[in-house]
Recover the amino acids of this structure.
């Protein structure tokens, strides 16, 4: 997949470029989730340090353009509308 981030303002197919960009973002998010063993988009039970249990769909808290490897431990996640960081998780179990 070509990840060139160049803009072509003369193209009449601007939505095709945007769709490709969205697809490349989804692929990047799925890739990092797979490498971290995070079931993004699935029902989970998450235990945070301190005995807090969350149940619901696991998602990224924010869409980010790039997820740098050295920042993975600081990645913000959400279950339902509760936000927490990856480093606060004690365990995460997929329920579906």
């Amino acid at each position: 997949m070509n990840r060139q981030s160049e803009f072509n303002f003369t193209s009449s197919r601007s939505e095709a470029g945007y769709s490709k960009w969205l697809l490349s973002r989804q692929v990047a998010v799925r890739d990092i989730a797979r490498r971290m063993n995070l079931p993004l988009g699935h029902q989970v039970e998450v235990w945070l340090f301190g005995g807090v249990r969350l149940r619901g769909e696991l998602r990224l808290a924010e869409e980010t353009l790039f997820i740098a490897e050295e920042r993975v431990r600081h990645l913000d996640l959400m279950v339902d509308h509760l936000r927490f960081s990856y480093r606060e998780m004690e365990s995460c179990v997929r329920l579906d």
